[in-house]
Amino acid sequence: MEYHKFEESTLRGFTESVFKKMGCSEEHAVLAADVLLKADLRGIDSHGVARLTGYVRLWEKGRINAKPNIKIVHETPSTATIDGDAGLGLVVAPFAMKVAIEKSKNVGSGWVAIKNSNHFGIAGYHALMAVEQDMIGFAVTNASPLVTPTFSKERMLGTNPICYAFPTGKYPPFITDMATSTAANGKLEIAQRKGTEVPTGWIQDKDGNSTTNSHGLKEGGALLPLGSDREHGSHKGFGLSATVDILSAVLSGASYGPWAPPFVAFMDPLPNQPGEGLGHFLGAMRVDGFRPVEEFKLHMDNWIERFKNATPISPEQKVIIPGEPELEAEIERKVTGIPLIDAVVRDLNEVADKFGIDRL
Amino acid sequence: MEYHKFEESTLRGFTESVFKKMGCSEEHAVLAADVLLKADLRGIDSHGVARLTGYVRLWEKGRINAKPNIKIVHETPSTATIDGDAGLGLVVAPFAMKVAIEKSKNVGSGWVAIKNSNHFGIAGYHALMAVEQDMIGFAVTNASPLVTPTFSKERMLGTNPICYAFPTGKYPPFITDMATSTAANGKLEIAQRKGTEVPTGWIQDKDGNSTTNSHGLKEGGALLPLGSDREHGSHKGFGLSATVDILSAVLSGASYGPWAPPFVAFMDPLPNQPGEGLGHFLGAMRVDGFRPVEEFKLHMDNWIERFKNATPISPEQKVIIPGEPELEAEIERKVTGIPLIDAVVRDLNEVADKFGIDRL
User: Fold this and answer.
1) Is the pTM of this model over 0.95?
2) pLDDT by residue (tens digit) across B59-111?
3) A180, A231, A296: residue with CB nearest B250
4) Domains of chain A (ranges plus CATH)?
5) Among A155, A159, A326, B317, whose CB has the most other CB atoms within 10 angstroms?
């Protein structure tokens, strides 16, 4: 695959310009670009500026509102429901996390369900907002239906990520940010470009048979829940994904399960939507609601050190602490730049031409 | 395997008698028995009265305090930390969940970290306490180290379950209660008794090689995190298990990772414990902190109906909604009785003889 490297500031400026051309306010454009750039910096390329054209196409279809009136529609001292007014999830979710953090400051924790939103980028961005305040961050979202429950051949759930982030002392924040499917769609796309097969257990074909054909999903198949099959616990992956769907959408009043609106603009949402838009669920808990922050951080560091030193199977590959590779990528890419494959650059330059802004 | 069936009331009376002989108060004995019986009724035999002799042995070693002074040691309006005073997790966790529910009534949600506890039975018992109050229940716990992180061959984590439970309308509560390992130890024990092999991906041997030997764990191997191997997402199972460990133990002040005290009395806890006992983390969120309860329940029922009707691969096996098989077992076993294998009955009768109470 051919790719070019771009400086962070170049991509950031470009992305902000595109969002402004969509009609976003300066503040929203800067924030939305920051969420996408964070994904690229952290090496989660599938959720960075490569998605920008997807948001543009949804906006062109009238499914994204560039000037949303995001508001709290229901609340208690530690909970709230927010209506995203069909705004970019990239700005709706940070708004909601600020509400969660504020509630957490006041009463120890804050939990916010969000309806009528769109794709919110990487869950980790939002969870890390809490970590900066010495809080534990939690972020989940439902997503376009691509995953089948155990025993089914119908796409009923998104890759519905779960993210937990914890403050630490001298080590990078501990952050687990994971799709609840065995593999994410991005990994299939890589195999498709390379023309290789995918491992057994990632997808099944349209009849529900296991397949290693990397085009199996496109051809009517489905991604499999974490665990891959019943014998290896796919009912657990299904249970987790379902939990994310319920917290994000049934609780907030968004559309759930197979009704979750697809991210791709060429597919319309199903008729008879049971709710409004996509849903998220975010939380923040003050560490000092449980024990003193410094004490917690010392023990987090001790936890991380102990796990780094868990006896490896092979001396060349030690245990990886969740969150470390992403921070390492962030440090490196700030210096060396962000690689974009040529197909993505072409896509972005088409948008630039349409909006009359400078090409990348 | 030979087994006998017992009426619920017989096992309940027996279990209460044993806890009272240990020195538990009437109230604690009744509660602890209720937690164990709930597991047996719901078909989770590994966590029911089959564990009773394990608790007795821990008490004999002085590791369980039958008369604990369970108390809140730190709190905010929506959070608390509880010291279980080395009591039975079976009574410490319900105490803590009551605190979470009370906080949830007051400010919308309640989150309680618990240190200095012991095995708390099935997570589902505690989460369902919240559901009875039209709240969402959350329960996790750390446990004896038997699971290895991805890339390691050292036992660093417990099977660390995650449980979420949601109220519903006409259907049974939606409840996902799952170990974060691919398979639980109980499944290995069944294979050992039958003399069969276990599937690839459940365990590895002491050198970190994949094995199908059902005795592999006993012989120095380890259970694998949900996902089984890196290619199938075992880093996600590791991330979830680690999250449970951190919430349960690093946040509360309990012992974490490989230091988590083993359930088996013949193994002493490691020296230089970084905290006190096992830890749990429980939560309750009022549904009406987000949207009206009746509205939520209608949508939960709609969710369940849609998923029950997801196109099955084979018409004989429809999608299973988490929580349904357990409720079906509960209804059946209340009538037909609870099966215990003879080895368990023998074990329980030895305890009966020692305590001078009637045999089963």
Assistant:
1) yes
2) 999 999 999 999 999 999 999 999 999 999 999 999 999 999 999 999 999 99
3) A296
4) 1-67+335-360 (1.10.1530.10), 68-182+226-290 (3.30.1370.60), 190-223 (no CATH), 293-321 (no CATH)
5) A159
